[in-house]
Amino acid sequence: MFELTELQHDALIEIFNIGVGHAASALSEIVSEEVGMSVPMISFRKRAEAASKLDNDEERRICGVRQNFQGSFNTEAILMFPEEKSLEIVRLMVGGSLSMQELTEMEQEAMSEIGNIILNACVGMLANMFKDDLRSSLPSYHIGSSDDLLSIDENHADDVVMMLNIDIVLEKHQIDGRVAFLMDMTALQDLRPHLDHYFAGLIS
Amino acid sequence: MNSPKTVLVVDDSRFSRLISRTFILSKYPDWIIEEAASGEEAIEKMGRISPRLVLMDVNMPGMGGIAASEKLRMQFPELCIFLQTANIQESTRNKATAMGVGFLEKPISEERIHKVLAELENG
Q: Which is the most buried residue in A128, A145, A191, B54, by most CB within 10 A?
């Protein structure tokens, strides 16, 4: 099993905390209200297990946006909200500038775009901290259980991945969501020198 | 009174195009907004329209916004182009600067768009 040193673990948490902080700031601008964040939680799981644990409530339906980022390290990034809240988030974004019919028609595209903005805000910040250039896939939108969000290739169902979750909450409107990152062991190996470099930069 | 201007909004997200259109027209209701869903479509449309401003997304299917902006910059050296993107990476900002293209960070905001439009109106 791949292991991070204590310092690498701390650096990883710190870096993603900063990245999601930037994403929360982007979300706050979108919805015009304060966005709270939890402490990042890291766990190692089999990929198939990670899919079912993406959301705390395995039963509820969620809408999620997934993007893959590739560069000197690769990661899958996911933003998700309860399905019943997605229209409200879109409405908060556009205020009164669109009719309810327009909002409903564009809910999926709007959520994809919001996911694109939030996930890029976070991963873009990581890329800037690492002086890296990460290329992103187009956002893909999913509705269903958290299982549906991650496509599981049978050949990789038992591969261990690192899952890093940060919960976000819009208290005023009682909307809770989650930003999650998944990295396989190769990606984590690739990330390790960046973590060491980041830590060395802090203490130098 | 200044004459209406044409703005070309290039974004694969119909939603983002609609938001840009709404924010532009809220301040300049007589301006003409043209839309393209890809870099290729933007280049093709440039043969028929003469926009004063192009707002260009980066991450799109096909050639993408960077390549499309490079091409437009070569063909139309005086054209005002802004990348309007969620890709906030320094590497993307640097590419914009190198091309002589402006940079607008998403989320699209009325304030940011109006600032660009005011500069366009005054310049």
A: B54
Distance from CA of B77 to the nearest CA of A (A): 27
| Contact (CB<8Å) A117/B86 | yes
Fold of A6-199: Chemotaxis protein chec (3.40.1550)
Sheet strands (E) in chain B: 6-10, 32-36, 53-56, 80-85, 102-105
Question: Both tokens of residue A8?
Answer: 């690498």
Q: ipTM of the assembly?
A: 0.82
Confidence at residue A138, expressed as pLDDT on a 0 to 100 scale: 95
CA distance A120 to chain B (A): 6
* Chain B residue nearest residue A67, CA to CA: B59
Q: How high is the pLDDT of residue B41?
A: 98
Model's pTM, two decimal places? 0.88
Chosen for mutation from A105, A117, A130, A131 (greatest number of chain B CBs closer than 10 Å) is A117
- pLDDT mean values, one per 10 residues, chain A (204 residues): 80 88 90 90 87 76 93 93 91 81 88 94 91 93 83 77 91 91 91 86 73
pLDDT tens for each residue of B21-44: 999 999 999 999 999 999 999 999
Count of CB contacts below 8 A, A vs B? 67
Chain A neighbours among B 61-80 (CB < 8 Å)?
61
Q: State the DSSP H helix or E strand holding residue B71, giving kind and residue range, or none if neither.
A: helix B64-75
User: How far is the C-alpha of B80 from the C-alpha of B54, rounded, in Å?
Assistant: 6
- Domains of chain B, first to last: 6-122 (3.40.50.2300)
* Identity of the residue in B13, B26, B89 whose CB atom sits nearest the CB atom of A109: B13
A96: closest chain B residue by CA:
B22
